Inverse folding.
């Protein structure tokens, strides 16, 4: 059993966001200090690596860092292990078609887009989540959900792409091109992005997308109290009956995106 001093060293090492990112990067494979710096930033990099070494979590030989057996076991025991996906094995994608341009239900001045990227990214899609500040991968639907302002983009592992609140076809093609370039740049680098810290979802942000009727059909006294229970995971979106109405379809999509962060 590790002594008190060893436990304190490990706790200190893993209390920092940058050091946790380094550990998750090294779970994929050994990396040079240069590659780690590109992924997490050069600021205090030597210091962070030194702390991880002192805790016995990593080792560095010829400027290449790798996890020690203790480091690997520590991540697995703490549930920090991530799915091993090699971005370098994915092929660059292209936008092959914009299949449909339909009016948005909630705002008829905007459009819904159905498009396709090829080849499908499959399991590699999950590893791309950290590339997008407001993005979250959903295991349930096998898709990466990305929020850009009022636009909601859903990229499926099968290659299909849906977007809501689009101005016109030119706007859709512009966003699709941005998405394609971001993905292909990551594939070209061949390094799985470091996992993001979990995003905190504020109940008020959820509340803004609810119908606001305070009808109590969900069993709560108000839509805001329902939002609090949604964020805590105590209830699901299906409990809000008015939200299932077609006129709230876009709001429902945005709520699903927000709750995917939890």
């Amino acid at each position: 059993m590790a002594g008190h001093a060893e436990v304190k060293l490990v706790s200190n090492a893993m209390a920092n966001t940058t050091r946790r990112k380094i550990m998750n990067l090294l779970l994929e494979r050994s990396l040079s200090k240069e590659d780690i710096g590109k992924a997490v930033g050069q600021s205090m990099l030597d210091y962070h690596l030194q702390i991880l070494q002192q805790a016995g979590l990593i080792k560095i030989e010829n400027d290449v860092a790798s996890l020690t057996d203790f480091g690997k076991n520590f991540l697995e025991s703490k549930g920090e292990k991530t799915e091993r996906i090699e971005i370098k094995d994915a092929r660059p994608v292209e936008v092959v078609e914009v299949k449909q341009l339909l009016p948005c239900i909630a705002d008829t001045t905007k459009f819904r887009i159905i498009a396709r990227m090829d080849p499908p990214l499959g399991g590699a899609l999950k590893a791309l989540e950290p590339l997008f500040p407001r993005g979250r991968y959903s295991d349930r639907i096998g898709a990466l959900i990305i929020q850009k302002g009022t636009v909601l983009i859903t990229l499926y592992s099968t290659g299909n792409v849906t977007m809501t609140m689009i101005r016109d076809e030119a706007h859709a093609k512009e966003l699709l091109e941005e998405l394609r370039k971001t993905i292909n740049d990551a594939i070209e680098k061949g390094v799985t992005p470091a996992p993001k810290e979990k995003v905190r979802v504020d109940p008020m942000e959820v509340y803004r997308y609810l119908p606001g009727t305070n009808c109590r059909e969900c069993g709560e006294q108000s839509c805001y109290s329902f939002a609090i229970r949604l964020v805590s995971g105590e209830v699901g979106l299906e409990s809000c009956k008015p939200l299932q109405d077609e006129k709230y379809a876009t709001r429902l999509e945005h709520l699903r995106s927000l709750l995917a962060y939890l």
Summary: Confidence is low (pLDDT under 50) at residues 80-84.
